[in-house]
Design brief:
- By secondary structure, this protein is α/β, with parallel strands linked by helices.
- The chain has a single domain, classed as NAD(P)-binding Rossmann-like Domain (Rossmann fold, 3-Layer(aba) Sandwich), CATH 3.40.50.
- It is about 45% helix and about 15% strand.
- The strands form two sheets. The chain has a seven-stranded parallel beta sheet, sandwiched between helices.
- Helix 3 packs parallel to helix 4 and helix 4 packs parallel to helix 6.
- The longest helix is centred in the middle third of the chain and has 29 residues.
- It is globular.
- The model has no long low-confidence stretch (mean pLDDT about 95).
Amino acid sequence: MATWLITGCSTGLGRALAQAVLAHGHNAVVTARDVTTVEDITADHPDKALALPLDVTDRAQITSAVEQAKARFGGIDVLVNNAGYGYRAAVEEADDADIRQLFDTNVFGTVDMIKAVLPDMRAQRSGSIVNISSIGARIKAAGSGYYSATKAAVEGLSGSLHKELQPLGINVTVVEPGAFRTDFAGRSLTQSAKPIEDYAETAGKRRKENDTMHGTQPGDPAKAAAAILAVAESPNPPALLVLGKDAFGAFTAVAEYERAELEGWRNLSLSTDI
């Protein structure tokens, strides 16, 4: 039995994961900005679940959540950084305050959560950190530049962190989901207030008013939760896990395109050494 701390559990993948973790007999610290949205998850597991308010942009709340988790369960074995949201805008359209809030949540919130649990994980020489990214970090769709940038930052951070922590007995896995049947493309998706007409045929097609994906995504959050649980319980977990047929296909296509482009410019690339 392990103790999990999961951020962003009010809906979607975070909610499904919290339910799966508890169903498998683990302890779960189930968090959301509005704690009332997760109390129904924990109500049936009074001995194994703890519902806490947590805004990952609030360092005092992070410290409090980690301390309460330790007081209740003795420590945190698995941290899942799931809290985050989407943002769509052409790069030129985006509002500065929107961009900073996005990075504060998706990137720096993840960093602060990691730094809050690592001292104890290092001391016990064990633990797992699961960072939820997106296939968007790979495909970099028009209109998702800033969101893709936050997830690419999380992936870069996770890759280095994996190398730093693996010798200490701590695993880091970054997860790239495709489109799952969650609120991500609905309530959880924000966008620039003032679109620019010149981007109507690129970034504009991904604006909420033009997006028909919400409610039709192919991925099942419960199956994604089961996959993440399997990774965390594996003796040899991957550094990167891609979830969904759409994500797997997109990842493969991007890798093949990048390989072809690399080879196409090989001679110029190799011409710059002294």
